[in-house]
Amino acid sequence: MNHTRALADFCSNLTIDDLPEEVVGKAKLCILDYVANIYGSLELSAVANVIAYIKSIEQKGNITALGCGFKTNIHLAAFINGTTAEAVEAQDGVRFGGNHPCAAVIPAAIAVAEERGLDGRKLIEAVVAGYEAANRPAAAMHPWHTLSGFLPTGTCGTFGAAAASAKLYGFDNDQMLNAIANAGYLLPISMAEHLMGGHTIKIVQGGQAASAGIMAAGLAGSGLTGTPFVLEGSALNGGFTQITTRAAPKLNLISDALGKTFSIMDVYFKPYTACRHTHGAAQAVLEMSERTDIQTADIEKVEVHTYGIAELAVGKGVSISDSFVSAQFSIPYVVAACLLDGELGPKQLTEKRMADPQVIGLSKKVSVKTDETLNQQYPGKTASRVAIQFKNRETISRQIDIPKGDPRDPMTAMDIAGKVKKFAGNRNDRKIDNLIETILNLETTADIRQITDMI
Fold this sequence. Notes:
- By secondary structure, the chain is α+β, with helices and mostly antiparallel strands.
- The protein has 2 domains: 3-271 and 422-454, 2-methylcitrate dehydratase PrpD, CATH 1.10.4100.10; 276-400, CATH 3.30.1330.120.
- 53% of the residues lie in helices and 8% in strands.
- The chain is built from 23 helices and 8 strands.
- It has a 4-stranded mixed sheet with strand order 6-5-7-8.
- α1 packs across α9 (173-186), α5 crosses α11 and α17 (331-341) crosses α19 (357-363).
- The model has no long low-confidence stretch (mean pLDDT 97).
């Protein structure tokens, strides 16, 4: 079976009238959550440096660098807007794909919709199609794509950005197929080595994917073609899933039940600004802190028991000279920040907060271990148990089986609106309320530029 063709045909033919009400609702929540991430990411100096560089090379264009106060060309705007979707590490994600579709798909979709003056209904269609094109290839290779050294937000996200762009350009089935195929040629490698090493270039993977996806679709519209078997490959052994994973992909996940099940419904939202693998520990600590007056000076040690992938990906500690990316991917740092600050938001991931010896010192009391029982439950559950032992030998503990934001314990529209307001800082409250209301009623919006002007 040609799985790529099946996916392309589905994305091309999808209409909002065919979508279940809950799918439309989830797409709007994904867009609303995306806005929160933009505001949160603008707190980071690394993001300011990216924006300053883009402004230095190009200030001509009519596409909004969201929240930044200027416009530029469509590719650079998508690059910035994908970077701000990703950088604060509070972006949505898919448990069974290990990817964060919003960081690539929504920046591309909004940029093209703004360019063409399209309405909210078209944007919803593009986001749903883009999430399918990003999430299904990621699921087909999970977790081996990541374990082979790639970050699927950048790689698979480019397929999603291309599909979303092609949808907004009104492409037919063949043009959609070529947009997705071209994405396979242009997508970034998105090396996991950079993330694991805590290097700040990691934050641009969504922006690179968004920009490359728009380019892939634009080139398809100009007549350039790519292999129609880009995802599954052929006897030439050069297909995407053939060259980017060490294990045989489950190709049926690319095309099974298209139109019957929607991957966007599997998307989780993040209440905290750190890798999802840290969230069980963060939530456990914050819930214990609400119930018990924890004096950090009295803590002897903290043990975090979790599943194997979590220990591998986020079990390491940090030093005072490490980057905020290292902190986002460190259970010891996350636990320490939660204990000291009682929250985990954009301010906990700034360089200023990381420079505090108190948070680094407390993080060194935190150890992370794989618990075989919890490991056996993964990926069905992403469970973590935190045990805090005090100097008087008293111990308190808390286990979280399903962290908040999972579809089984979802963040509601009110929760995500609260996240937008919190991350928006001291921006005008009335304007933020209007923005939230507009996105939650997106299908009635006549021109996406009403939203880009408000952000």
